[in-house]
Model the fold of this input.
Amino acid sequence: MQRGMSIERFESIFSPERLLISPAHLSAYESDALTAFHSRPAAVVVPESADEVIATVRLCNELRLPFVARGSGTSLSGGSLPIAGGIVIALNRLNRILRLDPTDRIAVVEPGVVNTQVTVAAQPFGLHYAPDPSSQTICTIGGNVAFNSGGAHCLKYGMTSNHVLGLKAVLASGEVVEFGGESRESVGPDLTGLFVGSEGLFGVALEITLQLLPRAETFHTVLAGYRTLEEAGNAVSAVVASGLLPGAIEIMDALAIQAAEAAVHAGYPKGCEAVLIVELEGPREKVAAERIELDALLATSGAVEIRVAADSAERMKIWKGRKSAFSAVGRLSPDFIVQDGVVPRRRLGEALRRIGEMSRESGIRVANVFHAGDGNLPPLILYDGREAGALERAETLAGRILKMCVEMGGSLTGEHGIGVEKRDYMPEMFSAVELDLMKRIRSAFDPLGIANPGKMFPCADAPALSQHGLHPLEKAGLISRE
Amino acid sequence: MIPAPANIEELAEIIRSSEKVLAVGARTKPALSTTDSSVQLVSTRNLTGIVEYDPAEFTFTAKAGTPLREIVRILEERGQYLPFDPPLVESGATIGGTVAAGLSGPGRFRYGGIRDFILAVEFLDGNGGRFRGGAKVVKNAAGFDLPKFFTGSCGRVGVLTEVTFKVFPRPPATRSFRIPCATPAEAVELIATVARSRREFDAIDYQSESGEVFSRMRGPADALDALAADLRHEFPRAESIGDAIWDDITELRFATGSEWLEKRPLTLGTMAGFVGECARAEIKCHVSGGGSFVWMHGGNLTHARHPLTSGTGCIIRNCARQPTTAYSGSVFDSRLRDAFDPARRFRGV
Ligand SMILES: Cc1cc2nc3c(=O)[nH]c(=O)nc-3n(C[C@H](O)[C@H](O)[C@H](O)COP(=O)(O)OP(=O)(O)OC[C@H]3O[C@@H](n4cnc5c(N)ncnc54)[C@H](O)[C@@H]3O)c2cc1C
Done:
C-alpha cells in the first residue's frame, strides 16, 4: 500500500490539526532526549481519548504500520525515537487524573499525566506518588510505565513497577486488555508487572492505577564531605551494615561537586573529592532515634565536614545541588553521553576505580553522580563532538563501562532503559536463547512487530548518530537530571 | 511417589518426557497442585540451598525448593528479613512455591508484597530449556520483567528453579496492637485513617469473626513506645498485645480446621460489603495487608451457588476449583503459551 494512502485513513479518526504531517510539525518529534538520534515519522497523531488511541492502533495493525507511543519525549535511550515512515502517537492530551481515592490510597490516571501532577493531587490527603525521576516535572506516567523509571528512593520504595497496581492497554494486536486492578494484590501471573518496563513494545497503556503512599512526617538530611571517593564509599558500607534503611543515599564526585557549585552555589564543603548525602525519613520519634545512630556513624567515617539540614529550606538546598549536578556537569562540556549501569553495591568502589582508570587511559573526562544505595551509577562521559573521532572514543568508553557492569554481576541499565542506545549490548547480559524468548513474548503482545520496532533488541539498521548533549529543556533550565 | 530430581538436567528431562506437567514444592497449598492423573507432578524438594547471600548487598539467591524456614533463619542471623512476611514458613513452604502462588503476608502493607521483592528468576520452559530473567541487583530495567510475570503464575508457564530476592535490615523492635471494631464499616474507617497516618504502621489486619483490627509498628524501641502512647491517645481503645499474633497469621492458623481456604484481592472501598456478604454465607474473613487481600475460609463456596463464586481467587486448600484469570483460555493466553510452552505441557495463564 502507498504510504500517502495509508495516512489518509487516519483522517477518519483525527481532524487535520491533530494529524500532523507537515515537515515543520514533524521535526519537533524527530528525537527524544537522546538527541543524537533522529528519524522522521510519516505522521504524528494527537488523540484526546482512549478510544482514539485504540482506533489508531487498530488501524496501524490493519495497515501493518509501525507506531511509537510518546509521552514527553524525555527518554534518554532513544525509546521514543520515531520509526521512519511510521506513526507517532502523542499522548500529552490524555492528561486527566480519572480518580483519586484517599481511602484506598490509589490514583487512576491517563498516560499523559505528568509525574509530579499525581503527587500534587495526592498532597491534600497527606499522600504522595513515590517514584521521583529527576525529570518528574515533565515526564509522563505512560513513559515511566514503559521504562520502569526510578529516582532517588529506589532501594527503599522500588521503581515505577512497584507502584503500578493495574493498567488498561491496547495491545499492538488491537486487543484491549486490563491487567491487575485497584487492589494491591492480584491472582495469576503478574501481567501488570510484565507490561511495566516493556519499553512500548507491547502496546499503549491507556489507564494506569497507581498506589499512593503516606508522606513522611520528617526528614533528617546529612551531607558529608570526604577527601576520597573511597572514604565516601566506606561510609555507605557502614550505613548499610548498621541496619538503618535510609530513604536515599547519594554520592557525587569532585567534577560533579565543582559543576553543581558553579551552577547553584549549593555551598558544598570545599576541597572534597566526594560528597555523600544520606536522608532518613519517617515519624519524628523514629527519625529522632535513628539520627543519633547515623550521626555517630558518620562522625567516625573520616568525613572532612558534616552538615545537617536544620530545616526544610536547607534540605532543599542540599537536594538542589544534587539534582542539578547532572545538567551542571553537562554544561562543562559541549557533548556528553549519560549511562546508568548498575553494579552490586559491594563492588561500587572497584567500579569507580576502574571507571577512573579507563577515563585516564582514554583521556576522556567522566563525572560520577550516583545512587550509592542501590549501586546505580550514572557516569557522564564528557567529550567535544567537534573533535574528530571524539564521539567514537566516548562511545567506546561507554561500551567498556557497560560491559564492566554486566561482568560484575550487575545490569546494563538501572532506570533509563535499553531503547536504541543500548540494544546492541543486550547480548552481554542475556544469552541468544533468552533474547529469543523475549522476542517471542513480545510477539504474544505484538504479533506483527509494529509497536516501537528497532528498540531493545540488537538490530542491524541503526539511525545516524551525530552528537550527544543536553535536552533542549535542560538548556532552557526547565528540568535537570540525575 | 512424585519424582524429585536432584538437579536441573533431570528436571528438564522429566518435563520433556511428560505430556502435561506441574511442579510442586512442599505442597503446603495442596489445592494448587491437585490435578487429574494425566498431569505429571514433579517436586523441587531436592533443589535446595542458598546459592548466594551477601548481607551488604541486601540480596540473596536460593534454589526454588529451599524451605522458607531456612531462608528466614539465615537472614535473621544477619539481622535481615523479607518484609512481606511470606506465609506458611513453619508449615514448610518453599520459596519457589511461594513465588508461584504469589502469596504475601501482613507485612506487605508497608513495603509491598512478594512481587516487589523478587529481583531475578531462573526457570525451565515447556521444552526444558533454561532461562534467566531480571538481574541479581536491587535495581534493574534491562529486558522484560520475567520475575514479576512468574509471581502468581502457579506453575502454569514454566518451572522455577532459582529465585533472587531483595531483603531489608530487620528493625530492632516490634509493637503490636489490637483495636476492636463494632462493624466492618467501622474497621474500614479505622484502617483508612491509620494507613494514612504519620506513624508508619507496617501491618494492619482485620479478623471479621472477632471484629478486631491488629496492627504492628517496627523500629527503635524508644521511638515505638512514644508512638504507641500517641496511638492510645488518639484511639483509647487500642490495646497493646504480644507479637505472637503475627506468627499465627502468617501460618494461617485462623483457618485451622477449615477445609477450604482462598485468597482474594480486595480494596478497602469494597471491604465492608464483601465481609458482610461473606458473613451471610457463613464464610469467615481474615483481611490482610491493610485491606489489600482477604483470606476466606470456613464455609464452602465451592459447593454453593453463590455470587461470591464468580470472583477470582487463589484457593490453596480444597481442590474443587482451580484459580482462573481473565485471560485463561484466551487468544492472548494461547500466544503467551506459544512463547513459553509451544508443546503445551503447562496449563497456561
Ligand atoms: C533531564 C532528565 C532527567 C531524567 N532523570 C531520570 C531519572 O532520574 N530516573 C529515570 O528513571 N529516568 C530519568 N530520565 C529519563 C526519562 O525522563 C524517563 O525515561 C521517563 O519515564 C520518560 O517519560 P516521557 O513521558 O518523556 O516518555 P517518552 O520519552 O515520551 O517515552 C519513553 C518510552 O515510553 C513509551 N511510552 C510512552 N507512553 C507510553 C504509553 N502510554 N504506553 C506505552 N508506552 C509508552 C515510548 O514509546 C518510549 O519507548 C531523565 C530524562 C531527562 C531528560
Q: What stands out?
A: Residues 312-331 of chain A form the longest helix (20 residues). The two ends of chain A are 45 Å apart (CA to CA). Residues 462-468 of chain A have pLDDT under 50 and may be disordered.
